[in-house]
Amino acid sequence: MLLTLTLFTAQFFFSSLMAKPASADNQPVDTLPTVTIQEPDEGTVFTDPNGRVTLRLQLQDDKGVKRYHFDVDGTLPPSFMATAPSDTDMLVSSPTLPVDASFAVSDLTEDKPYTLTVTATDTAGATTTLTRRMYIDRNAPVITTGIQDGQQLTGTVGIDATTGEKNPTLYRIRIADRHGAVVAEASDTDNTSGAFTWNWNSAEAENGDYVIQYAVTDKAGRQTTVNRTVSVANETPPSPVNEPSAPLLTIAGINGRTVSGSVSDPNVTFVVAVDGSTRPDVAVAIGEQESGGVYGWTLSLPADVTTGVKHVLSVTANANGKNSDPATLPFILPYIPATPSNDATVDPLLQQLSTNLTQPFSVPDSFGDIPAPVKVPEVDMKTAEAAVLQKVKDPNPDQNVKAPVAATANGWKILGFYWYVWLLIGTGLTVVATGIRAWMRRRRIAVPKPEVEVLGNLAE
Asked: What is the DSSP letter of 458?
C-alpha cells in the first residue's frame, strides 16, 4: 500500500513538471468562415429587362456568422431585398446563415459583365470573400459598317463592323461572289472591344461584284446580319511574257555507227560536229514522244569517220533562237572486216583441189601397215601443163587486168587471183607431182642407157 502511494505521488510530480503553463498560444485556433454562392451560376446571362437577379447564399462558421456584405461592382443595387440584410450584425450568431436575396435587372443600366461579391465575417472578426461573374445582355447587337452599298474597292481595304458590345461577342465577315461562293472570310470569336476590323486585299479576287456579309452574335446568342454590295475594280497587270527557254539535249550512247539521245522540243535544229568540224551532211531523225515528255533522236556517223581512232562527237539543238548546251561523246569505232562477196565465180579446178584436200584420211598404226600406193591415173602432162599455163597467163579472159598485182579490201590479187587461190594452186601441183613420182616408181620405168655406150658396142 505504501509502495503504490509512493508511485502515484512520483507520477503526479513529474506530470506537473512536464505540463506547460497556460498561455495565449494554447488557445484553440479560430477557423475562417465559408461562403457558398448557390445562385446564380458563373457566367449566367440575364436578358429580361423587367426581370430580377436571384441570389442564394450559404454562410457558415464554427463560432457563428456575425454579418455579411454584398455588392455588384462595388455597389449595393437599389432594389436589393434579402432574408438577412447586408452589412448588419446578426442578433444571434449562428454557425450557419442561409440568405435568399434578389434585385432588379434594371438596377444595372449597361449591357456588360458584372461581378457579384459576398463577404462573411464571424464573431472573431475573421472574413472570407467570394465573387461570381454574371452578364446583362438585354439588346441584340446593332452593326455599323464603314463600307457602304455600291462602294468600289481597290487594293487593301479595311472591312469593319462596330456594335459597341461589351460582352464577349462573335464577329464573322464573309465575302461572296455573285454566285454565292465565299472567296474570303475572317472572324473573332471572343471580342470584348465592341468592334472588329479586317484588312482584305481585294487584288486577290477578280474584278466584279461581291457581297460583304457581316454577322455578329452576342453573349445571349442573338445574331444580327448586314450585307453590303460592292465592286472590285483593280487594274489588271499585264500578262508576263514568257521568254522561250533553251531545249534540253542529251546523248544516250552509240551502237556501231548509230548515235542516240533525247531532246525536250521536237521542233529543233541540230548542229553536228565531229572532231571540231561541223558536219552538215549528217541528218538527225526525231522520233515519237517518250516517257518524261522528251523525244528520242538518232544519227548515223558517215563512212569517212575512221575506225580504231578516238573521235569526239558534239551535238547542239536550237529552238526559238535558244541553243542548248552542247552534248559531247568521245568514241572509238571498232574495226569490222568486210565480208567477202558470195557473187565471185569459183574456178572449177580450184574447187576440185579444195575438195580433195579437205577429205578425211586415216593414219596407219605403224610403218608396216602402210597401205599400197594409190594408183594415179595417167595424165597427159603436156595438156595439163598447157591448161595451167594458160590459166595463169589469163585467169579472167573476160576482164581487162592492167596490173599483175593489186591490193583489195579482201587481200592481195596476183594476175587476177587472190593470194589464197595461188596457195591452193601450189598445193595442188605439189600433190599432182608427188602422185606422178609414185606412179612412175611403181611401174619401175627403165631409163635407156646413154647413146654413147651403144656406139661403143658397135665399135667392138
From this structure: H
Phi-psi region of 444 (alpha: psi -120 to 50; beta: other; left: phi over 0): left
Tens of pLDDT, residue by residue over 402-454, are: 556 666 666 667 777 777 788 888 888 888 888 888 888 877 655 555 554 44
Identify whether the C-beta of residue 289 lies closer than 8 Å to the C-beta of residue 329. Answer: no
What's the grid cell of residue 27? Answer: 488557445
Radius of gyration for the chain, computed over Cα atoms and rounded to the nearest angstrom:
64
Q: What domains, with CATH codes, occur in the chain?
A: 30-136 (2.60.40.10), 144-232 (2.60.40.1220), 249-332 (2.60.40.10), 348-358+371-443 (no CATH)
Contacts of 259 by beta carbon, 8 Å cutoff, 6+ apart: 251, 253, 298, 299, 300, 301, 313, 315, 329
The Cα–Cα gap between 389 and 405 comes to 18
Distance (Å, rounded) from C-alpha 15 to C-alpha 12? 5
Burial class from Cβ neighbours inside 10 Å (0-12, 13-18, 19+) for residue 224 reads middle
Q: How far is CA 204 from CA 148, 150, 433, in A?
A: 21, 19, 109
Question: CA of 403: how far to CAs of 151, 212, 322, 423, in Å?
Answer: 106, 105, 58, 20
DSSP 67-94: EEEEEETTB--TT-EESS-TT---SS-E
pTM of the model: 0.48
User: Exposure pattern of 411-450 as b/e (b: 16+ CB <10 Å)?
Assistant: eebebbbbeebbebbeebeeebeebeeebeeeeeeeeeee
Which cell numbers hold the place of 270? 541540230
C-alpha cell at 56: 442564394
Q: How far apart are CA 103 and CA 57, in angstroms?
A: 14
Cα(231)–Cα(153) distance, rounded to whole angstroms?
6
Q: Are 231 and 152 in contact (CB under 8 A)?
A: yes
pLDDT in tens, 139-184: 999 999 999 999 999 999 999 999 999 999 999 999 999 999 999 9
The set of residues, in sequence order, having a beta carbon less than 8 Å from that of 458 and lying 6+ positions away, is none
Burial class (CB in 10 A: 0-12, 13-18, 19+), 324: buried
C-alpha cell at 238: 499585264
Beta bridge pairs of residue 36: 58
Joined grid coordinates for residue 60:
457558415
